[in-house]
Amino acid sequence: MANLEHGIANTPQTKFRLGSITKQFTATAVLQLQEQGSLQVNDSISTYLPHYPQGEQITVHHLLTHTAGIPNYTSFPDYAQNKRTPMTVDEVINWFNERPLEFASGDRYSYSNSGYVVLTKLIETVSGQPYADYLQQHIFEPLEMNNSGYDRPEPILSYRAAGYTPSSAGYNNAQFLDMSIPSGAGALYSTIEDLHNWDQALYSDIILSESSRRLMFSPTVGMGEENGNADYGYGWVIDCAYERERVAHGGRIDGFTTSIARFLDERVIIIVLSNLETAPVY
Fold first, then answer.
1. Each residue's pLDDT tens digit, 110-152
2. Mean pLDDT over all residues of the chain?
3. Among the four residues 149, 213, 237, 275, which has the most C-beta atoms within 10 Å?
4. DSSP letter string, the chain
């Protein structure tokens, strides 16, 4: 059900929050800006964000691959309290940027939503546009992804799914999350049909050149045994399933859990979007 209280079923047009599937769109925006000559992924972030602490040690590449060592703000003890409070991108960054790095940048992989918030700020600084506007103009509109965007609770959004968590009585409404908090790490919504458009575009040069797509899907860093010895590229996990190469990513955000998996040789995509936080989408 898209909405239990009103008895409305999910359909292919239902809009779901994507959670961390958002990261592949953030990575795409960064690669587009590189193609435009506005940035280079091997540059330190201090080139573009000169006031970021220790920014000379951290490259854009490190942020994209979760190898920067920036502590993950969604794991902080005060996250549950602060996630209800509207924040600017700068305020979210100030939440974690003064904390010491967990390891020297580039040393290893450690999943961090914080890095993708910094990428959000980088996109806005370099492009001169708000993150949501940049994605709308340079990704969603060219691909006719008319049912995708940055999810905010204030606008009336037709076919919006409500998010749920399980309870002893069946289901509860998910806890409130102000959507300024996840930003480019997890704030987008979409539909299965729009994500199919997205998949098809990634076989062409409409959004990214072949060299940028190759960079995005390159197994750059090992994610460790706890992650099945998969590798991480730019906003995508690269591994094997059913003896086939797969590029994939999941997402989980209050009330929603999602999965997208592309089998490139077969040109097959599997998309699962759920508005139940514990749904076994994988």
1. 999 999 999 999 999 999 999 999 999 999 999 999 999 999 9
2. 97
3. 275
4. --BTTTTB---TT-BEE-GGGHHHHHHHHHHHHHHTTS--TTSBGGGT-TTSTTTTT-BHHHHHTT-S----GGGSTTHHHHTTS---HHHHHHHHTTSPPSS-TTS-----HHHHHHHHHHHHHHHSS-HHHHHIIIIITTTT-TT-EE--SSS--TTBPPPEEEETTEEEEPPP--TTTTHHHH-EEE-HHHHHHHHHHTTSSSSS-HHHHHHHTS--EE--GGGTT-EE-SS-EEEEETTEEEEEEEEEETTEEEEEEEETTTTEEEEEEESBTT----
What is the longest distance spanned by two Cα atoms in the chain?
55
Predicted TM-score (pTM) above 0.90: yes
Rounded to an integer, what distance in angstroms lies between the CA atom of residue 80 and that of residue 74? 8
